[in-house]
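Translate structure to sequence.
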């Protein structure tokens, strides 16, 4: 279905579980060589081994997205193992629900350094490799809350809005290098991270998750596979005229 992806190489941050693991499996099924990265080494290794067991090509590497050194090593290992880097999927992220007046420096730094600076460091490491490969595609994971905002998520919303902004700037900067840069803005996705997020959401006195789901035009949670389907389109030649866009996958939330 995505024959043009066969033989390409993708680096995926946060690939040990949830959306990242789903993207790794989907890309591998399309013939992509996959570099699964995460800080959850046991889970990430299991995802890579599962892909290998199904006939795909995958390796696992430890990556703390806050670390420039880790990013340098991962990109170098990807080129050494598979010869090039064609796709970067900046998927790793964390969620915190705290308003500005109670948000500590420590928590602000944690969410910005992971969600936004991690994306910056990933792109900075990958762009030279993509130039060597003759081009590539970078997909950054933003959020509907990076577009519309929500109560209490000061650091998270700021980080995801920043992801949208850096995506647009990079798209303009690297188009001449045949590097496309896009972002995805999901709402709630059925993953282990959502279970953790629901605990955080319960702190919000103005927000009821079930009521919010019921109010959406498509009143349900997205599956990880549905997000992976969008990823496949955006990294394939079917979207070769697309760069700089922020693509919602949100059940219609941003339409209202």
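Result:
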């Amino acid at each position: 279905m995505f024959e043009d992806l066969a033989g390409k190489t993708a680096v995926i941050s946060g690939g040990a579980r949830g959306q990242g693991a789903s993207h790794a499996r989907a890309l591998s099924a399309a013939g992509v060589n996959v570099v699964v990265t995460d800080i959850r080494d046991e889970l990430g290794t299991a995802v890579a081994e599962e892909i290998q067991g199904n006939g795909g090509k995958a390796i696992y590497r430890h990556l703390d997205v806050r670390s420039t050194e880790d990013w340098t090593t991962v990109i170098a290992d990807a080129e050494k193992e598979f010869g090039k880097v064609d796709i970067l999927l900046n998927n790793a992220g964390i969620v915190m629900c705290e308003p500005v007046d109670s948000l500590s420096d420590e928590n602000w730094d944690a969410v910005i350094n992971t969600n936004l600076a991690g994306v910056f460091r990933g792109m900075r490491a990958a762009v030279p490799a993509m130039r060597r490969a003759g081009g590539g595609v970078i997909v950054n994971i933003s959020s509907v809350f990076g577009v519309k905002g929500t109560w209490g998520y000061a650091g998270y919303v700021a980080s995801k809005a920043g992801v949208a902004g850096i995506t647009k700037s990079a798209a303009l900067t690297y188009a001449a290098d045949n590097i496309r840069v896009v972002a995805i803005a999901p709402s709630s996705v059925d993953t282990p991270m959502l279970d953790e997020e629901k605990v955080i959401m319960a702190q919000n006195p103005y927000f009821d998750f079930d009521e919010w789901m019921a109010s959406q035009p498509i009143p349900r949670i997205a599956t990880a596979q549905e997000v992976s389907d969008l990823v496949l389109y955006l990294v394939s030649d079917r979207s070769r005229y697309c760069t700089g866009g922020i693509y919602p996958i949100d059940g219609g939330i941003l339409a209202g």
